[in-house]
Design brief:
- Helix content is about 40%, strand content about 15%.
- The chain has about 300 residues and is of the alpha+beta class.
- Strand 4 and strand 5 form a beta hairpin.
- It is globular, with a radius of gyration of 20 Å.
Length: about 300
């Protein structure tokens, strides 16, 4: 039973089961033909949802392709928090990318990279504790490593990953902290019926080192190296430094270990999916002898007028 306030438009609620978010999601279909996306969470997440809404509104004012927030608040019984968003007609990039030409994949990747660069340009409050943020990043890396070591699970190749983390952790060169999407994957990108690229699912949004948002690029590179190359080219406008690839790889392997630990502790999912990703990373980086993955191709526009 959903207890919603009266200012949410009446309509048929169609459950949405896609995605990994713990939110309950519904497509609201009104009698006048209008459609909305309704997300519902436990009321304990009210402050978290308010921060998510404020970030989406900032992105909208900057002209970024995010859903419009129509309303948010507590349900009538006070037990849940809701967010009412615009509905985007289109296709999830993850569902259609195999049918796109390599040129189209690259072009969409460039657009995704440009959008991400603009997100990272949003200024944090002047009072934001930058030093604390950098300390937190180190603590998160150490916590990820400790959690994996304590979970009691090991796989062939994990020694190389652990060694990479230990050797490169101290070499991180932090950029100025910024807002992050935290789940920048094809599953959270929609190509609308008008060919616009939209970024959805801001449930994990946070702040930190901007290059952390490339920590899930291995998901994309495995499916489409063209899109992954485009995302990097669109973000930087040129070829990035080796410091970027060093950091990106560090965040990628940390995400893989974090996922493996979570799966072993909380889920019945097949851990082999993440192990296969770790093997891909080892192959792409020649057992970590190279920071730059083998799928990366230099920006063809580098040096052009």
């Amino acid at each position: 039973m959903i207890s919603m306030p009266g200012n949410v438009p009446a309509g048929k609620l169609i459950p949405i089961h896609e995605g990994l978010s713990t939110d309950k999601k519904y497509r609201v279909e009104c009698q006048n033909g209008e459609k909305y996306l309704l997300r519902i969470s436990d009321a304990a997440r009210f402050e978290r949802k308010r921060a998510e809404v404020e970030l989406m509104e900032q992105c909208g004012m900057l002209g970024l392709p995010v859903q419009r927030v129509y309303n948010y608040g507590l349900s009538e019984d006070g037990k849940e928090v809701y967010v009412l968003l615009s509905w985007i007609e289109g296709h999830c990039i993850a569902d259609i990318i195999s049918r796109l030409t390599p040129r189209k994949r690259y072009e969409l990747g460039c657009r995704a990279g440009s959008i991400l660069s603009k997100l990272h340009s949003l200024l944090l409050p002047a009072s934001f504790p930058i030093a604390n943020c950098n300390t937190q990043i180190f603590e998160n890396i150490d916590h990820t490593l400790m959690q994996y070591m304590d979970c009691g699970f090991h796989f062939k190749g994990d020694a190389s990953i652990i060694e990479y983390i230990v050797q490169n952790r101290a070499s991180l060169r932090f950029q100025r902290p910024c807002y992050l999407h935290r789940d920048y994957r094809l599953e959270n990108m929609i190509l609308s019926d008008t060919e616009d690229l939209w970024i959805i699912d801001w449930d994990s949004a946070d702040f930190g080192d901007p290059w952390e948002d490339f920590g899930t690029l291995f998901w994309i590179a495995q499916i489409s190296p063209e899109f992954a190359n485009g995302q990097i080219h669109g973000y930087f406008g040129e070829n990035p430094s080796s410091d970027f690839f060093r950091a990106m790889t560090l965040y990628e392997v940390c995400n893989i270990l974090k996922s493996i630990t979570w799966i072993k502790q909380n889920s019945r999912e097949d851990v082999n999916v993440m192990i296969n990703f770790s093997n891909l990373l080892l192959d792409w980086h020649h057992n970590f002898e190279s920071f730059t993955p083998s799928w990366y191709e230099p920006n063809p526009r580098q040096g052009m007028p």
